[in-house]
UniProtKB/TrEMBL annotation:
InterPro entries: ENTH_VHS, TOL_plant, VHS_dom. CDD domains: VHS. This is VHS domain-containing protein. Residues 16-142 form the VHS domain.
Amino acid sequence: MDDRPSDDVCALLSMVCAGDATNPDWGVILELCDVVGANATDAEATSRAIQRLLSRRESEDQVSLALVTTETIMKNCPSFVELVASRLFLQEIVALVDGDGRYPDASARALRMLQEWSTEYPSQPMFRDTFVQLQLQSASASSTDHDETVSAKPSLAHEFDKLRQDLVVVEDKIKTYVNLVALGNCEDADDVLDFLQQCQPRMNTLIEAGLAGKLDEATLETCLTVNDRLIKVLEGNVSADNDSEPKAPALYSLNDTNPDYVSGPFSTIALSEPPPAPHRYHPDMV
């Protein structure tokens, strides 16, 4: 099959991505939406062309506009969502988020989009799984910045709350895998196992951060409990797990001074994000 984008797709994408990220050409983007919505072949070609743009990452404006275009097409062409939920496309999103820091605004937008997709499209579990893996990886990253002020602590509390939610997701995936194996559903079980295998190294790094004082004791205990169950499953022990549920860590308190939350695992996460792309009839496009 010829995977080259059509001339129309190439021309429209080139026009969009040659512009200014602060002032996207919504008319051309919506014209591209019409092309994608009218022809499945052009939709696939558009997906591949955007992947190439994200892979090359020639400039921050180009990458940001490619993300804006992706987001807008998804909102206007529901069938495009499945193409974005592919492993190849999401690999480019992850690579951008985990990049070398050259394009911080584009990276923040990519992470914000992935987080929104994880809740907006529950029928596409790849979005949620990919976002959870990124969160675990971000949580386990150590920080060298010790100059944060007390005003940053509420935001850190929010990040730790998201970590707890991510650990619950991993726990649920473990239970799902055990149930699928028991039912003999090998195909779905393999998909869940792939997710769990990717989680293990990040769980190990997260535990190392906790042992170094980057997590509170209750959160570290939960990490250890989930990790023990994860290891058992990956080693082939898929018998019913009758252990009690891990305790929910206590909420973060502004009065806490130990362990060191300020230099903790979330201190490198950017909390300011650019605004999302508008829907088709956004007033800015008039």
